Fold this protein.
Amino acid sequence: MSHDQTPSDKFVFPRWANYLLPVIIVCAAGGGAIAPVVVGLGFSANTLNVGYAPEQPVPYSHALHVGELGLDCRYCHTTVEDASFAAIPPTQTCMNCHSAIRSDSPRLEALFKSNETGEPVEWVKVHDLPDYAYFNHSAHVNKGVSCVSCHGRVDKMTVVQQVKPLSMGWCLDCHRAPEKHLRPLDKVTDLAWEPTLMEGETLENAQLRIGREQKKKLLINDEAYMTSCSTCHR
Ligand code: HEC
Ligand code: HEC
Ligand code: HEC
Ligand code: HEC
Ligand code: HEC
């Protein structure tokens, strides 16, 4: 995770990427205009880790807690609106309920042990960008990009699974045309939300109408900025 690094140590590529340095320098000089060319060359692999769904120490289910019980993402992932990272909840958040609910369940053994010892549950990270790419949750969540655009229907997952490649090409697809994804800010954690159709309108056109409105209202940066190397490699 690259969350707590200072800006100066973020733009570090793996050694094997060194042969690309001349391209990088040309691109940095040319700015956003050249970015589509670079991506056109097939820079990024695009199936990175899709389908990855590691087993967790406690069989926690989003389908049950979000889909059925109706908990909001921010009840547990408390930092998404304020920080670059999305905090995984501490044991105490679970104990708010599980000190009484299913307090003898063997499936909760690792949770209860954590509660006794004070050692956190060792959750296995599902999504993981390389450190040289900078990502920030609050920058997206506060601009009307829903969790569903990047994580899929987590509210239907018994086990969290990575559904998007998280490749550079994938990031850029949206950065070039964010209106395909933007929604009202109060719907960001409502994964089932769909735009209300006007008469005769298709779903796609309704999304574009609302997305363009939001883009204007929230003063979303232009394409040159959104695709410039230093936006994500800083
Ligand atoms: C009751 C607490 C709780 C709620 C509510 C909750 N989550 Fe989670 N979430 C967790 C826990 C615990 C984990 C770590 C274990 C796991 O991956 O299943 C997690 C993991 C995740 C991950 C994977 C993190 C990684 O390692 O890459 C994503 C993505 C995620 N949650 C999204 C959401 C979204 C979107 C919502 C709302 C629709 C939501 N969560 C609501 C507790 C919660
Ligand atoms: C708002 C209350 C609430 C919170 C907070 C909560 N749970 Fe639950 N949890 C429930 C309820 C209700 C059930 C279903 C109990 C049943 O089926 O009888 C449940 C069931 C479970 C089960 C299945 C237990 C079994 O015996 O099958 C697991 C595992 C679980 N929760 C883990 C967690 C973890 C881990 C957290 C914290 C990240 C958490 N829960 C937070 C209310 C909560
Ligand atoms: C624009 C895409 C995008 C959106 C929107 C988004 N995420 Fe993420 N999420 C990511 C990426 C990329 C990572 C991996 C970050 C890393 O490894 O540095 C991630 C990681 C996570 C993690 C693991 C902890 C972390 O920060 O690495 C959780 C939990 C999570 N997201 C929950 C959420 C929730 C809840 C929402 C909605 C409120 C949300 N995400 C919205 C792309 C997104
Ligand atoms: C579904 C659309 C979408 C996806 C996917 C997406 N982004 Fe974004 N991103 C946005 C929007 C919208 C903004 C807000 C731009 C603004 O504030 O003007 C943003 C802002 C950012 C910012 C902050 C820019 C700034 O300086 O304010 C960074 C950094 C960023 N994105 C990185 C990434 C990375 C890295 C990925 C891929 C792992 C990614 N994004 C995937 C839509 C997306
Ligand atoms: C919207 C965010 C974003 C922008 C803008 C961006 N990148 Fe990336 N870049 C990423 C992400 C995310 C990765 C990591 C993908 C992965 O896991 O392989 C990456 C990976 C790379 C890599 C490593 C090799 C590879 O393909 O995985 C290089 C080199 C690179 N970027 C160069 C650039 C250059 C040059 C520019 C400007 C033309 C640029 N990037 C603009 C997000 C971005």
User: Anything to note?
Assistant: The chain has a mean pLDDT of 86. The CA atoms of residues 95 and 112 lie 8 Å apart. Residues 13, 17, 20, 24, 27, 35, 38, 43-44, 48, 129-130, 133, 167-168, 171-172, 175, 227-229, 231-233 surround heme C (ligand 5) (CB under 6 Å). The two ends are 14 Å apart (CA to CA).
